[in-house]
Amino acid sequence: MHGTVVRRIVSALILVLILSLLVARPVRADGGYTFRTLYSFTGGTDGQTPQATLVLGLDGNLYGTTPYGGNVITGITSGLGTVFKITPLGKLTTLYSFTDGADGARPFAGLVQGSDGNFYGTTFYQAGTVFKLTPAGKLTTLFAFAGGTNGTTPDAGLVQGADGDFYGTTEAGGADRSGTVFKISPAGKLTTIYAFTGGTDGGEPAATLVRGRDGEYYGTTPYGGSDAWGTVFKVTSSGVMTTLYSFTDGSDGGYPPAGLIQGSDGNFYGTTNVGGAKDFGTVFKITPGGTLTTLYSFTDGSDGGEPFAGLTEGMDGNFYGTTSSGGSDSCGTVFEITPSGALTTIYAFTDGTDGGVPLAGLVTDTYGNLYGTAAGGGAYGAGTVFELAVKTPTPTLTSLSLTGATLGGAATTITLMGSGFVSGAQVEWNGVALKTTYVSSSKLTATIPASDLSSGGIYNIAVLNPGSGGVTGSSLAFTVNNPIPSISTLTPGSVMAGAATVTLTLTGAKFVSGAKAQWSGIGLTTTYVSATKLTATVPATYLTAADTFSVTVVNPAPGGGASKPAAFTVYNPVPTLKSVSPTSATVGAPATTVMLIGTNIVRTSFVRWAGIALATTYVSPTSLTATVPASSLAKAGAFGITVVNPAPAGGTSKAVSFVVNNLAPTFTSISPNSATVGAAALKVTVTGVNVASGAVVKWNGATLATTYSSATTLTATVPASDLAKAGSFNLTVSNPAPGGGASAAVSFTVNNATPTLSKLSRVSAAVGSANVTVTATGTGFQTTSKAQWDGVALATTYKSATTLTFVVPKADLVAAGTHGITVMNPTPGGGTSGPVTFTVE
Length: 841
Hints:
The protein is mostly beta strands.
């Protein structure tokens, strides 16, 4: 297996060069190109020693492989190879690291992008595999070689045929163990269409096939042929093999390690690694019919030597390639050769940061820029990806049609004015390429995608001309202004005063990362969740007092600003009142301070007395004091005391009763203080102190009709019925409840009248008469009136206030004489009437 041996020798050579040529040398390129190292492999997970030609993806990025590096597998120190993606600006992403499992290992060949957008390639290690890899890095092993007629150890990449299948070669295996040509469907069905014999048809093919314009497949073998120095062949999709040329290792060269390219003239072009005039390889042209012309023989001098890679045709019709040795620093070159064989070295590697020993070919983009890999050198000695850009003027950017947009806006097209723009110029947004349209040397248009307007900030817009070596010249600022946010809801929207720290959820629109919630202008600790949601922490210290607070969201600059406020309510609880102390006072008491005990009392709580607010002092969440003014104690009664928490929310507690008690009155005098029996109803004036409104005068305990005049005076009417009987009667004053009570009694006298005697029914009687009954007529008689005989009471019968009867006993009629008859009323009052003469004859 000559190819395997050669591959191992080359890898060893590379490692020697890496160790021996670590000193960085100046970077040089031909005047028409600017060289730039896009990436230096580290030998770690990003890969090491790239040896295959890159492929330009449909997305404008470059894709390639490394046979070493990647994730380290136990027992293997350098990793088993990678597939990577790299942008034209040099950002590399490792898409896949091989494990030597079912996925294979050591991909020495490059990739091809299929019509389905996926990438297809081969691995060499053990027996080798064919794999498919999505642009996102998901690998599927389509076929695992096991030797035999299917071949083994594919050292070359694939090419897709018109039938959609992929065509490739294996370096070994097949019927004669000299390699095969196979086709494989995208689903993984493999068919061997030709097995090399190692004879005149060649053997051990190591290069990727090329599909000619005639639909047939063309390739090379490094061994076999009529002189054993390799061949150029054509094979049909059905396996018909034609050897077009056998190398002799003479002026035509020998050992062609790389594949062919069909030029725009229809001929095929390629390289040999050895032979030629100086035995350092050649560049050749071969017609589809097999006529070979040596275009150039390398000398291993400044022109380079020992090319391992094939050629690529540039936009100018010339061909571009690499040599693995030679050049001014003996580390390989990049060259340009015309179809007629005029060769120009356009770059000589130094094995410094630029890289060294390029084993892979070049790929060109639509602007004529060249991209390739070097197997050695670089910042870490593990190889590089490089660019040779067509030199263009450094562009100058003078103005933008739009210098700002609002975050979250739709894709926006801007016009850029300046000078020095060339076709293929690229507008960059903070170093990332935008979709650009060339209009003229002074005008470009570019589309800023909506995704670039999703984050506020100031971004640099610059223009990169192809071939400028990454130099963008002047740049201008484009501001993505943060919008003004809006709040739709707060959750919660309110809490009770005294609540613990609250996590507030703000829902709205146009929130940006860095947005801050504010509480009445004071910033809160805020967490950005999404463009429509924030959370913020409201500390308990902000929730101690009831009020309505303004919550806003402030988006940072540039642009930005504060939303309209949303109201957050810290509301008072409804208080409860359990007790008051004291619970009572007496009418006329001075202003009194009461202590109120309850719950949910806040600093703005106040006390009401029968609905009227009192001067209140906050003591604690469970107590208040309030002053009841003297004016509120001027009237007796049970008064409701409540605690009120003001709005927002709040409310009024249930009432607790406070009693203002009447005093017991004092009775000092009455006027008049007497009357005569039988008098008409009499109005009396009662004088005293502590007389309450509603007080009544009582007559021997019976309530009289009473009129309140003042705290010292009442008037009462004594009915005639109470004056019909003489006597001393107790008058008291009673103050009503609450409190109150009766005064000490004051006496009122109903006096008997002094009677008058106007006539007797008889005024004489004979001596010795029996008892004589006499009727007396007069006034002022009462039930207790007594008729008197010379001052001695006689048996008397009350008939009416004007009539009495009395009996003169016979004992008083025994002797003749005149006697005085009088009527006497007893005390109180009373008295004796004038006499009327009664004669005993």
